Amino acid sequence: MSFAARNVLRLSRAAVPASRLHTATRGFAVTATQRVSDTPKKNSVVREKEVPATIYDGPGSGDKRTVRVPEGAAQIPFDSPAPPAENEAVEPLTKKVYEALPRTVQNMTVFGKTIIITGGARGLGNHMARACAEAGAKNIVIFDANQELGDAAAAELHEKSGIPVSFFKVDVRDGAAINAAVDSVVELYGAPDVLVNSAGIADSNIKAETYDPAMFRRLIDINLTGTFLMSQAVGRAMMAAGKPGSIVLVASMSGSIVNYPQEQSCYNASKAGVIQFSKSLAAEWAKYKIRVNTISPGYMDTALNRVPALEAQKKIWRGLTPQNRLGNVDELNGLCVFLASDSSSFMTGKSIPPKHDHYYRHSRIHDPKYFPILGHIPKMVSNISKGADCLIDGGYSLW
């Protein structure tokens, strides 16, 4: 079956009624398994006994394995994803080319690194996985809750790049499954060098006064608790190996601003938590030479945002950015590789937002027409903060 045909098949399987679509700054979602209801109001629990894994290292259909999981770790149902977009060919960095590069350029790669990427079966996480493969990663490990999409993504990336790619069916809310899967990664490849935590969901266009508390619990469990559990498991593996590492958390600009016109206070709160968690973790783990930074994307042109119901809002979003467009799904790849690479070795505790000036354009309080005096404040703050932005090691600002 051709790649395009597989995408059509995935789209038909993942299709959901328009009334159930939620939108957000980031176009990603954690995926549902066939055994779990995707109705957020239900309190169904799944206790995983083992984690399915597929190891792609050479020709063939992959080595199917299972990783046993200790008892525990409840799960909460979640929404189905949009299918991944069709991707270009992957040309990995070879050892011969790497050795011919100047030292500065070598440091801009992830050559020889083992990288775990959550939510890597589709969307931004999938593009980041491909970028890391192109930048010289030795092994790519995809954690995702969707067996079908995860297997397909790993097989495709291995086929196109030639590097070992593994997939572990892991729900980021299941701490026991995460620990078992990370232990298995250590057995296969050694301690990971990098974690890119891209798994997450979005609830938007829901008024706070009508927001179901069960949905809020689910949102926090996936976006924030999942971030903690993944960081903890990978961080422990790095510490045990006594090796430096980089943790890259994907948050959102919504963790630092209030979006307009959509109502999404709960989503914003979850991403604000991710940003603050990363700063605190950076301070705690600096002594272990583990860096923690956050990518906070703006409005991205992902599959979840390509629906007719969002056209009116997207017109407003585009109008709030100087380039008058949404970000392309591959435009965060370079930033991901940079934070994973040794080029950012003195950078930790930093939340990097998209530099599209959305912060100073989205609110009327910054419009001199409404507040003549306050209208000058953003420029003053911007000028003052330029020096602070030059402090690469964000961790220093914490003490």
UniProtKB/TrEMBL annotation:
Coiled coil: none annotated. The keyword NADP applies. Gene3D superfamilies: NAD(P)-binding Rossmann-like Domain. PROSITE patterns: ADH_SHORT. GO terms for biological process: mannitol metabolic process. It holds the Pfam family adh_short_C2. GO terms for molecular function: mannitol 2-dehydrogenase (NADP+) activity. Keywords: NADP, Oxidoreductase. Belongs to the short-chain dehydrogenases/reductases (SDR) family. This is Uncharacterized protein. It comes from Beauveria asiatica.
